[in-house]
Design goal:
The complex is a heterodimer.
Chain A: H1 2-13, H2 23-41, E1 62-75, E2 81-94, H3 97-103, E3 105-109, E4 112-114, E5 117-128, E6 134-136, E7 143-145, E8 147-149, E9 152-153, E10 156-160, E11 169-181, E12 187-189, E13 193-196, E14 203-212, E15 216-223, E16 230-234, E17 239-249, H4 260-263, E18 266-274, H5 276-279, E19 291-292, H6 297-309, H7 312-325, H8 332-349, H9 352-357, H10 369-381, E20 386-391, E21 409-414, E22 420-422, E23 442-447, E24 457-460, E25 470-478, E26 486-496, H11 500-507, H12 510-518, H13 532-564, E27 568-579, E28 589-598, E29 601-604, E30 607-610, H14 624-627, E31 633-634, E32 639-648, E33 653-656, E34 663-667, E35 670-679, E36 682-691, E37 695-696, H15 701-715, E38 719-723
Parallel strand pairs in A: 1-14, 15-19, 25-32
Antiparallel strand pairs in A: 1-2, 2-11, 3-10, 4-5, 5-6, 5-11, 7-10, 8-9, 12-18, 13-18, 14-17, 15-18, 16-17, 20-21, 20-23, 21-22, 23-24, 25-26, 26-28, 27-28, 29-30, 30-38, 31-37, 32-36, 33-38, 34-35, 35-36
Helix pairs in contact in A: 7-10, 8-10
Chain B: H1 2-37, E1 43-57, E2 62-75, E3 80-88, E4 92-101, E5 110-115, E6 121-124, E7 127-135, E8 141-150, E9 158-160, E10 167-177, E11 180-187, E12 195-200, E13 204-214, E14 232-242, E15 245-248, H2 253-264, H3 275-282, H4 288-302, E16 304-305, E17 307-309, H5 320-326, E18 328-329, H6 331-344, E19 348-354, E20 373-380, E21 383-387, E22 407-412, E23 415-420, E24 430-440, E25 443-452, H7 454-465, H8 472-481, E26 489-492, E27 503-510, E28 515-518, E29 521-524, E30 545-546, E31 551-560, E32 565-569, E33 574-578, E34 581-590, E35 593-602, E36 606-607, H9 612-627, E37 630-634
Parallel strand pairs in B: 1-10, 6-17, 16-18, 24-31
Antiparallel strand pairs in B: 1-2, 2-8, 3-7, 4-8, 5-7, 9-14, 10-13, 11-14, 12-13, 14-15, 19-20, 19-22, 20-21, 22-23, 24-25, 25-27, 26-27, 28-29, 29-37, 30-36, 31-35, 32-37, 33-34, 34-35
Amino acid sequence: MIRSSSRQFIDRSLVLAIFLLGIFDVVFANSRANEVRQMMWDNGDPDFNVTEIPEKWQNKSAVIIAQSNHMEYRKELLVAVLYYNSYRHDRIMLLDQRALEDYAQMYIPEDGTYNGVQYKFYAGYKIIKPDGREIEVPMSSAVREEREVDKKGYNQKKLAIPNLEVGDILDFYNGEEQTINLSGKKYFSFEPVIFQLNREYPVVKRKISFDVLRRCFINMKTLNGAPNFKLTEDAKRERNRYFLESADLESVKDIKWLFENRALPTVKFKVTYAASSAARLPTFIGAPGVLKSTVSTKELSDFLEYILKSNILEGKYFTGYMKKHFKHEKNKEKLAREAFYAYRNRSYIRNAEGLTVSGGNPYSNQGTFAPAATLSYYFRTAKIPHELIIGIPRQISSIDNLILENELTFLIKVNTSKPFYLGLFNSHSVSGEMDEDVQGTSAFSINGLLTGKFSPKKVTLPATSHEQNVTKMLVKSVLNDLNDDKLTLEISKEVKGANRMYYQHVLMDIYDYLHEEKDKYKMLDNFESYDRNRRNRLEKQKEDYLSDRDKSFSERLKLISESDFDFEIDKASDLKIHQTGRHHDKPEFKASFVLTATGLLKRAGPNHILDVGKLIEGQLEIHKEERERVYDIYMPFARSYEYRIEVEIPQDHEVQGIEKLNIHVENETGGFISKSSMEGNTLVVDTYKYYKSNFEKNENWSKMCEFLDAAYLFTQQNVLIRKRMIN
Amino acid sequence: MTERIIISVLILSMAGTGIAQRSADDAVEKARELRKHFENSTIALTESVSTYRFLIEPKNGLVKVENQEKKQYISLRANAEYIIRNYYDESSAIDSYQLLNSKGRNHTHSKYCGHYQMDNIFHSDARLCAYSVKMPLAGERIDYSTIKTYNDPKYLTKIFIHENVPIEKRRVTFEIPDNINVELLEMNFSGYDIKKIEEKTSTGKSYVYEIDLIDEIPTEQNIPGYLHFMPHILVLTRSYQHNGTTINLISSTDDLYQWYFSLTRKLVNEPGKLVEKVQELVVGISDDEEKIKRIYYWVQDNIKYIAFMEGLAGFKPEDAHKVFYNRYGDCKGMANLMKEMLIIAGFDARLTWIGTNIIPYTYDIPSLAVDNHMIVTVFQDKKKYILDPTEKYQSMHGYAERIQGREILIENGESYIREKVPEEPLNKYLEEKNITYTLADNAFNMEGTANYNGEPLKVLLSRIKSLAEDKIDLFLRNIISGSGNSNNFTVQNKLGFDRDKPLKLEFQGKMNNQLNTFGNDIYLSMEYEKDFKDLKIEDKRKVPFDFGRKIYRTTVAEFNIPNGYKLQHAPQPLLINDGDYQFELRYEIKENQIKYIKEIKISKTTIPVSEFEKWNNIINQLNNFYNDQIILQAVH
């Protein structure tokens, strides 16, 4: 626990302990601290002198009167040192106890050096009382806490803000100054940042500014109604300042099906240092000191040509493998599909057993570039017509707003007689499948048979329909003894399309599908590809893993069933995987299991009531607060759920109330349809719920609510089971 | 000659391999064996030996305690990871530690040392070294040993027998020389086969406690304080002889109080800085109780709980004017501030020490382990007001659950007064609902009122005040709807939130999901809250279940049978009167009116393990009642 929280701390602040500072450093540090203080508090910005908040926000917990973020990127002349300074200034009125608690305790990292980067931190806090008095909090009242991980210090200061009361304004700043030793590096890229202008509390004024100096490059784009950055040039100081100001931002928190980066005013940017030699490389960085907010197709083409070259070795190796193992296969479609599965084996399956038994993650994400580039290389060699497609995940932005190299995602369209995509790369993905993140988006396509001089053309990727992403379930139960409220439910699931990944990951492990790959790809037995020590260890770990495997899967099954169903589950057992769903010929994941449930059958005088509606799993309940919606609806994919319930009741009993199980709501956003009937002594209910698209405009929210409400209403339905009347 | 040496070395090394292999096989076998006992654990201790050696430091004549821990961890499953924690603070130090693998070599590990966040304490001297170890295979062993020194024995108050992992063989030894007077109190030993061996040593006596095969410290939800049920040894270092004189440490309650008093005597309160606020609060008020209340509530509402517990600050309150200025403090700081403010207002207010209900001891035990909290007692007109300013939204006319029935130590100059906080009667916990159901045009609706008093009121107010304004409505609807659907309810709070008055909510509900029509018959339930329906205790639970407070709930609901219908069936009444658990749920039929009466009284906060079966039986009966329905039959 300690370690992990310490790690978080390291990741967040990248701080190391400093030892003893000399007197000179102390003096310098104090004078710099004063400079930062003046820059933050004495800059004459009138928005940071405001003491009133708009009437409409008087009932909020807190209102941010003004917030500014200022960042500076600078390369020192002749010295291989890069400076990155970041300052944040907040002025917030605290209007209730909750907000007061949020801001009463502050944590300030201690100056230090980490991986060659020197960090200095500055902070200042003052309180403005309702009568106008300003009280600055002395930083000397902060306490120091020592934290040392493997002999490296990550100390921090903690400050409890004194004299802070409801109705006060807290005006505070934090500064972080990094000195980065380039040590001969010609290229240094800061982490890309994407954030929204809206905050948890409403904001009166929000300001963001950048100073980009000597040999620093900035890619930046404002999105979704965020205002554009304005430029002021300061030739004397070789400085370009970009400035954005926004106002009147409502608070945003916890909204269902919201892609914040797509729906809220957003800023994304990345700053790069590149020496002139490195700047010539075909990246998206543009010209030094000049904000760059578009990428041309030429730049994209050059970039692709450059990065594809970097993958040649891997491509050659894989091509060699394919030539050796599939030399007699002439059908290009078959070859393309075989290549996909061979690549899947090499990258995701070959080491999965070792990772599984040794507690590692057999499902690590390896990105999309390497698989797409490697397959493209082979297809080019094998003269398989294809396109390499470059998109951006839809939760990040549209391809029109491309500015960063690292937001790109790659896939392939194989243009054989029946074109198909290779667009999802993991242990269970099949040929013909595409990552839900790019479905329905615009993307760029290049001819994969070319090696350069690409002419990217804009394409729209298809989105899978609700008929392609289907979850089917059959629930069977026999009510032998109506006085026993424990029901045995025999459940079969068949999941096709995007939904299946969840079940494949949770309900299967390598031992469910190793046999599908072992012979075909000549995988060695008993960890023979590892050295002897590792092999021995893995064998022992495997024995241990297998001894707990059944129990562990039963626990997992119970856990996911408890999350899927809204009733109490005593036991989950008999998990059987009937089809793994890992090949395009058999893309459905099929499994069955048994649940023992309580609370579904209730006594009602001489009769019984069965909560049959609950057998279709828990359905989304839209709360009053959620019915008003101002943002568009972004869902992962269109999908449908086709469920069948079969409950056999005792011969001498009958069922009443099945007509309530017949519901029909459909509109252009989706639907919920349920039908019930008695087949002999078996109550049969079929339900079908579907979401027609992965995206709906906000105006359609009430239509979506119609079928979501219908599905929820179904879960509340029950039927009466009574002794058959003898006439 | 050389050849012979090489052969000898080879033979020796082969012999070594053989022994090592045997040892590894034994460990694997041991892991298998222990898995049978501790089937859900990934790691265990085959042996854990704690030794506490009391001695007098020759150079300063003070008592200190050397603590040696020797533990042998074994992984019961592959890929085991564990963090060994070694705590220290200003009065104790880690002198050394060692982690060895089964070959006797240093075991590679990551190490964290430094401050840690202890509960909700903002800053304290509590520190730890945490050693993160990995054991890739089942049956791997790690030998861990550490030596620590407690420089002041009064801070060494208790030793638990159990640890965070299960133990095969556990031993705790105390080595106490004759010239140090230490009393060991064995707590909660009943039900555990703990052997005690007392032996003479060259300097005094040793006491050894041994037990085999014990589970890890439980981590279930709703556990009462561990001191209530986990076996532990209270260590009372009372006095010692040095150079012919007897030096008292804490040998009696008097000594404990004198130490506390020595700390409070050092307070440098500046009451002048509080006068203006006190006058502002009590101006124009003649009633003494009202004055006390104003000050009490002001401290509750305006002083945030932020605790600094560095060294003696863990025991000595912060000066009153500092707490006042900071607008934050811990329980001692708040108590001291309130005491000073009350004194300014003319009252006899005293600091008061107390152990909350997580501690089972009384002040008969002279130990710092006896208390953990500070409150204020006001003596006024032969009345005593026991006030806890840390307890947000606590009415002056009641006592929080956690201090009820607890013994208090009230300052009284050089001496002290021992008293008890009164227990609140169950009727002060009343959560009361009155409901009327109606059925018209196929709509089954209800409206009602709810009143919350005492501890439930305080808890509700604390939650409400911690919510954003726009989240309060949903919260109130969730409270009213119980296990029903909050979407079907609207709730109004017309009287506002006042800790001195019951919280009165008015509500309306659309209850169609409580009603079904089958053929000509109507099936309905007037019970939608279903209190405790999911509170069946798992068979495997071995530790008491704590509700956190006593419970008293009543609901009275009425429904007029619609014209054209007659009552065909109503659930049989459920009457359980089992001492501390009382349930009365029944339907009364009068002419065409159905009245549903529910009264639930749980007069103790904890269900002991021995009563789990009884409790689960009650829950089964409750669920049977909840599941049954009223049946109205159409009259032809």
